[in-house]
């Protein structure tokens, strides 16, 4: 660590080579994508090198890297979930856009835009149908029925935290399924 902090690229490379493969396997278990796992690992190591001068280790080197990768994976899953949620929300808003056009005097969508919006709606519906039952139910109650987390928790006889967990996992699943629309 001290050598890396002093800018020793050889020490950094040895640490990278020693930890890269095990961390990659660890990350893949969290993000379920080899490409995303590689990006996460690269980001963690890149951040260590950029911030090496102020790098303080409160744990073992192994513990530090596994914790950093775990946190980076969780952040990536949250980012994916947010993108999926925004995609679904945008698609739902876009679905009603043509009906609002005359009222607001906006230019109606082109046939190509309507076709793309319909393709997104169909893909979202199909992706939601592929979710495990509890996740599908949480998504349906939240987005179609506009129920609050507390209402969903009561209806499903689970905790509000359970609703949050199921929704977060559902959004991560949807982000993977709808990746072609997100990027």
The CATH topology of the largest domain comes to Arc Repressor Mutant, subunit A
Strand residue content: under 5%
The name of the CATH superfamily of the largest domain reads Winged helix-like DNA-binding domain superfamily/Winged helix DNA-binding domain
Total strands: the figure is 0
> Biggest β-sheet, characterized?
none
Through-space gap between termini: 37 Å
**Order of SSEs:** HHHHHHHHH
Q: What's the overall average pLDDT, rounded?
A: 82
Please tell me what the overall shape is: elongated
Helix content: over 70%
Helix- and strand-based class?
Answer: mainly alpha
Domain count: the total is 2
In the CATH hierarchy, what is the class of the largest domain? Mainly Alpha
Low-confidence stretches: 96-102
Count helical runs: 9
Radius of gyration: 22 Å
Which CATH-level-2 architecture of the largest domain?
Orthogonal Bundle
């Amino acid at each position: 660590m001290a050598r890396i902090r002093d800018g020793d690229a050889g020490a950094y490379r040895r640490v990278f080579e020693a930890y890269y493969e095990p961390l990659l396997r660890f990350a893949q278990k969290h993000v379920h994508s080899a490409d995303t796992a590689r990006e996460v690992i690269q980001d963690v190591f890149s951040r260590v090198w950029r911030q090496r001068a102020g790098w303080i280790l409160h744990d073992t080197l192994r513990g530090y890297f596994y914790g950093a990768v775990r946190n980076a994976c969780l952040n990536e899953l949250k980012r994916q979930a947010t993108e999926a949620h925004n995609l679904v929300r945008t698609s739902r808003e876009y679905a009603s856009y043509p009906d609002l056009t005359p009222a607001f005097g906006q230019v109606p969508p082109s046939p190509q835009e309507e076709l793309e919006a319909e393709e997104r709606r169909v893909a979202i519906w199909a992706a939601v149908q592929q979710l495990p039952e509890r996740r599908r139910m949480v998504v349906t109650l939240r987005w179609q029925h506009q129920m609050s987390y507390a209402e969903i928790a009561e209806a499903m006889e689970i905790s509000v935290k359970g609703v949050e967990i199921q929704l977060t996992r559902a959004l991560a699943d949807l982000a993977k399924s709808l990746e072609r629309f997100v990027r």
